[in-house]
Design brief:
Elements (H helix, E strand, L loop, with lengths): L1 H26 L25 E14 L4 E18 L2 E16 L2 E8 L2 E10 L8 E9 L14
Antiparallel strand pairs: 1-2, 2-3, 3-4, 3-5, 5-6
Length: about 160
């Protein structure tokens, strides 16, 4: 019985020692500042540092009503995501996409349209870094991949 406790105690101490020593070694590495770039009104001109991978995701709910037209929309954007991979200095590879859940109501008739929205792949090249008089600038080149379910294709959506 005493020998069993001694083995458990040794294993526990070894685990704690390895865990904390590894954490201290990792914390010595300098991590660059986190600058998000999820799709919104504007994109950041900064690219991900080479060798780093950054994954960004989020959720959006929109509600629109036009009483005169008897129109209502409840729109959920689930998993609006962007994967950014730093390739070389000032150049990153990007993959993004989202899943939409839309509920349209027109004249008491309801229609649900759900599915994968635009899936994009591309690159971002930061060609100017911020200086005294010049703002940081970047060029984003993306292509839309032909991915999506049969129930939702935003290029052919109509009511």
């Amino acid at each position: 019985m005493i020998k069993l406790i001694s083995v458990k105690l040794r294993c526990s101490l070894l685990f704690v020692l390895i865990f904390f020593s590894g954490k201290n070694l990792y914390s010595q590495r300098k991590t660059p500042p986190l600058i998000t770039d999820r799709p919104d009104k504007t994109e950041s001109p900064n690219s991900v540092v080479p060798g780093f991978i950054q994954f960004e995701t989020g959720f959006l709910y929109e509600k629109t009503e036009f009483e005169q037209l008897n129109y209502k929309l409840d729109a959920f954007t689930l998993g609006s995501s962007l994967l950014r991979i730093g390739l070389i200095k000032n150049l990153e590879l990007r993959f993004g996409g989202e899943y939409l859940v839309n509920k349209f109501t027109i004249d008491n008739s309801t229609q649900n349209i759900n599915g994968i929205n635009a899936v994009n792949a591309g690159v971002k090249f930061q060609f100017l870094e911020e200086s005294n008089q010049v703002p940081a600038s970047a060029l984003i080149i993306e292509v839309e991949l032909p991915v999506g379910g049969l129930t939702y294709d935003h290029r052919k959506q109509s009511l």
